[in-house]
Amino acid sequence: MDTERWRKNLESERKQKDEFFKRGYQSPISFEERDSFKGLSYYPVNIKYRFELKLFEHSDKESIKIEDTKGNIREFIKWGEFRFNIDNTACKLQAYKASPDENVLFVPFKDLTSGKETYGAGRYLDLEMGMDTTPQGNWILDFNKAYNPWCAYSSNYACPFTPPENWLKVRIEAGEKYIHKEKGA
Description:
Blueprint: H1 3-23, H2 31-34, E1 50-53, E2 56-57, E3 63-67, E4 73-86, E5 89-97, E6 104-109, E7 123-128, E8 139-142
């Protein structure tokens, strides 16, 4: 892997997202806040938080219900599990799909930065077959791409909560941070 190209691609993706949040028609940032929007806050890009992993696909793919921030219940399929180590701590994350024929894995997670430096309800990774897989068939789990759900920026959105099975007991100092708004600010 060309780490310099990887780093530049991540930085470019971040700039594009900031531009979309500032000017995009579907941005979760309110029109009133866009003039003062200076961009999202991120941890520095860090290769330590990029993994190429086998997905341990579940033979019995159970359906689970996850509540969202508006109190709705959403159904997901528990598709598989990623296993990795961070700072000598064994970690596991479940990957979900909304339907069996979907090509995207949804990986919500909370970690020890949640509610302090990152959004309290957790962050998300979306992994797309082909784009986030290696030629050897492994998945690229890159926490540098972790993002806050749009409900972190606007009450107009409903976002699934992170199931307790995806609460990590380590700090993931990668991806988007969260700037808490003060009341009246």
